[in-house]
Amino acid sequence: MDVRHLDIAKFLPHRSPFLMVDQLLTLDDTHVSTTFTIKPDCIFNENGVFNEAGLVENAAQTCSSIVGKSFFNENDVEGEGTKLIGFISAIKKVTIKSCPKVGSTILTNATLKSRFDTDEYSICTLSCRITLEHIELLSCELNLVIQELK
Q1: Would you say residue 79 has pLDDT above 90?
Q2: pLDDT confidence band for 131 (50 / 70 / 90)
């Protein structure tokens, strides 16, 4: 399946104005790649710049799609089969080198490092890198908790 045609907003629990991912480029069991174009009305803009909290939130939303995908049926291209909640349980390491300007389109790549599943939730550790025109803006390692809402 070509994931570029999936509407990522149907699979993440976030909604405008808190959705920080526009397009899913690639997605498999261990890696994801997304883009996000920073619009002028984004809640994480400060003086024409997408701030550090916005970068971290973009990273977390991108990362959550790797584990989140396992909660959905492969044929559920509308994201109707389940509802998820996820949150950052720990930021193990983060390096922010620069913040992009409004109007920029950032590329975010994440890789699953470890995962622990229970009947109730999944805990995972992921590494993430955000770039703008091949220049690294952020690198981090996050722990996320993903849970299906019953």
Answers
A1: no
A2: very high
Output the CA angle 79-76-54, nearest 5 degrees. 30
* Domains in the chain, CATH or no CATH each: 3-149 (3.10.129.10)
The DSSP letter of residue 62 is H
Beta strands, E only, the chain: 23-27, 31-37, 45-46, 49-50, 83-96, 105-117, 122-132, 135-149
Percent of the chain at pLDDT above 90? 61
Which 3 state secondary structure label does DSSP give 4? helix
94 neighbors 140 (Cβ within 8 angstroms):
yes
Does the global pTM surpass 0.85? Answer: yes
